[in-house]
User: Fold this.
Amino acid sequence: MSRGPGRHLAPRAEDELIENPDPEARRLRTLLPYFRPYAWQTAATVTLMVLVTLTQLAAPALAQYAIDHAIAKNDEAVLGWCVAAFVLVGVLGMVANGLQSYASVWVGERVLFDLRRRLFRHVMDLELGYHESVPTGRTVSRLTSDIEALNQLVTDGATTLVINGLQFVGVVVILFLYDPQLALMCFAVFPLLAIVTAAFRVGSARAYRRTREKVAEVLSVLQETLAGMRVVQGFGRQDAARRAFGDANVEYRRANMSTIYLSSLYFPGIELLAAGGTLIVLWSGTERVLDGDLTVGVMVAFIGYLSNFFDPIQQLSQLYNTLQSASAALEKINGVFKTTPRVADRPDAVAMPPARGAISLDDVTFEYRPGRPVIEHLSLEIPAGSTVALVGATGAGKSTLAKLIARFYDPQAGSVRIDGRDVRDVTLDSLRAQMAVVPQEGHLFAGTLRDNLLFGRPGADDATLLAALAAVDEGDLLASLPNGLDSPVSERGTGLSAGQRQLVSFARALVADPRILILDEATSSVDVQTEHRIERAMDTLLAGRTAVLIAHRLSTIRNADMIVVLDHGRIVERGSHDALVGAGGRYAQLHGDWHSLVDA
Amino acid sequence: MRDFWRLMGFLRPYRGRVTITVLAAAGLMACTLTLPYLTGRIIDEVLRGGHRDRLPGLLWAMLGIAALRFALGLVRRQVAGNVSLGVEYDMRDTVFGKVQHMSLGFFDRMPVGQLMSRATTDLQTVRFFLGYGLVFAFTSVLTLLVSVVILLSINAPLALASLTIGPLLMFLAVRLGRLSAGLRIDVQQRLGEVSQMGEESVAGIRVIKAFGREAERAAAFEGVAMGAVGRTLDVARLEARYEPMMGFLPTAGLAVILLMGGRQVMDGTLTLGQFVQFYLYLSLMIGPFQSFGFLVSGAQRALAGGRRIFEILDSTTDVPEAPGARGLPPGGGAIRMRDVTFAYSPRDNGAEARNVLRDVDLDVPAGRTVALIGATGSGKTTLTELIPRYYDPTAGSVSVDGVDVRELRLHDLRRAIGVVSQEPFLFSTTVRDNIAYGRPDATQDEVEAAARMAHAHEFIGRLPKGYDTVIGERGLSLSGGQRQRLAIARAVITNPRILILDEATASVDASTEREIQDALRNVMRQRTTVIIAHRLSTIRLADEIVVLDHGRVAARGTHRDLYASSSLYREIHDGGLARPELVLGDV
Assistant:
């Protein structure tokens, strides 16, 4: 496989420019612990590799023996033995080769599976803040294309590396054993070889990196133009878009061409050096055979072994690029591992008992970036079973407050308590089992409508699911799906509009039957009629639950037990609708403004 | 086979260079084959025959051939590389050019992810096959043929005996290629599932965390990943069975040479040099024999990839430009729709086509504003997409300034229409470039004027780098209202006759709402406007209101008329339109 032309050019959607010139070997060492669970399998694989190499190295030696001791001496018996040994070694090699190739894939695949599993769990554990600051695509390529890059190295590459490395060393040893003088002579090409190879490594490292960068550019232009095709066509800018794409394409071609220049010099160059070595053997060997100083068999063996010497060098040089991409990939993966989850279970965290749902925030301060608090010294008591509406301008801290209650973030100072228990003292799983958050974007997973509704409470029966759907939808949604609850839905697939997805996401939260319900602009994408209907049903939906609402509609806000007006991370007013209007503060002023707008 | 020749067509511009590659490859092969021949002669003539004087000549010849081989190798690699990159460039450019002119219906059928994978992975397989695989196949066949001839001419019985491995080897290689092709596709499929699952989990992390389902999600992901591992191991098992056998056969051939050839040397029917030649030639043939499987599967993959690319190249646009299409006559942008019926997939076999619009008549006189209202799914957005001909109606006609849009040049029609969609797409470039997208030559003053008109100038000023701020850069996200105002500025800078606006449903605070209203009032002046309205305040800007219900026009008229005559309108007006939000705006 490693011989195939240019496997190394598999396009990678993105390569951040963080490939610093760290020694690859040191970085790749971080992969070693993943081999530990498979220590004996790994050892067996390496042993098999050694065996394979030995059988490969034995063939020319046996041929030499046959030439010198049987053919030259007209000894048919010895020839028979030689051929028998030759075949035996071949069979041994065949068996070892089969076992080895399966074993190395087995180990490699398992190691990468473990890595991928650990990475996925880590990604899931990273707090929301991480995911909000890192684009989805980048995290996904850690899990996919970066692992693939490592795969090339771990399964194919490692075999190539070990077998060719062993072969290279083995040949040197054997040739010196045969005839040190001749060996020294043909290794005269070695310094030249070392220089050429070193130059190739340096040059190709740069060239391949540039190629990877350029191909990423081509892909990003392509991606963006496709995504924005409506705009491109709407403004009739196809020609300009094509030029931009053409430019990226040309640059990629140019960058890639430089890798071709390099390898078109290097690989034929190695062959030339190999021919040089062979010529030295033929020249000096022939003279010495004629002088009776060397046998023909040894000379032929030398020629045979020399190709075993130069072949590994070519293979290893081709491997270098794989090694580089793998090491760049590993660095990015390790970067994710180095990010520790900021919100995690404490070692002594206990399971939260079934909650009543009283929420209290005590002197809470929170900042996303140091020195810029979004919530400042905020204290708030929400009695169990009551409904609180958070009101405030964009950036006042409403969503942040809701996320602190759900422990998506931990505050820098102060505490968030539920039923008097600090949320940091209980396990995240048990905490979240008691609450449901309906976010602004209703994300659905590929699967059926039922799968999605069951997400928060696997095992709920269909009646529960239908009841939850009925609470938010008059039946249009189900009617529009051909197979009812079994209809497939997906994140991007057609079928459901943004509004309908939000309704499903709302119903999903109801199915979970949480003690605490947090609605963060949960109905912003549904049409206004539907929203009104949900508002009317709100009393039933919220009965017996503690609810925190972020909403804009007066009708929703008015019915809350308590309205909390936030401004720049502080509570400026709190109280019931009537009380606040009566108090003549900011809420009252706003309410007045609103009336004047509506009545205008 | 037709697809194969069509693929070969992409080599046509490079005929000269392909010829050079083939010649270089042939020369290369000749050189490679000459070396064992010369080695044999050295052994026979110099070592055995004692002609020591012939050694320098033979060595010089070998050196010359090695140098020639270097030169030919260099040429072959460079030219072949050049061709393969050229093919890749051409194909990608062709695909891009094609896709760019496809109608939106095409993109409904072919998601961006699909197009991306065809323009990358599929293209690479084609490129490697056309650039390298073909020439490689050619030299392999040639090497085999020539070697066979040489071996037969040296010693026919020995050649026949040792070459029996050839067909066997080829059989195994082709069989492996065939068996593994299906498995490999399966592996690719499973890996695709792994990425999809990964992507979905990261995108939906908020929901996963909200319900504390991390562990279940991880288990599901591991299940999918393990599936991929299992398939990969299937391939590995198959290869572990076949490849070592293919590795052993040449050894068997060499054993035959050792045994038979050795005896012949002892008999004197074969010289030691010829014996060595045999040995070396057979070693040379191993590679080409083994590469057959690789070549067969490479060709299969390239063909499969080629077909997926041809599928794009062969698609036809749903909105073709009529031959002799004309420019838009002068006018104020009057829109007229007659009996318009529309279904997204009218040609769906079996299922009844679902008409999204039915018998719609609409007249918007030049310079006037029409507001479309109706529930989600009533066909409002679809209706507006027929005007710039993103789609063509299934029945009926749409005309602008008296001309059926199907008779107009697409470019002219669309330049005359500014579209602001509900969730506008902005390019990841500067704010300025985004606004000036339709008029790249616009001056800074013009850009600012458009931004002012759209009430965007002020918030742009508050961005970190003002008009030079790059949209979509880490940490910088614009609100829906801001994006829409940028899109409005982008639309008005081209000064279109017609403006189509799909208002965002998302809540905005009172002051933002006022800003948007002011912006709309500005840009609607002197223009024909169709606006999909969700807000009470927007409706007030319209000259006429059209109520859509399940794809039909249910009522039309002014607010006063409709409120008196239409119960549906009253229902929507009182309950279904957004009033300003009660939010602490920028107080």
Q: What stands out?
A: Chain A touches chain B through 165 residues (CB under 8 Å). Chain A has a mean pLDDT of 84.
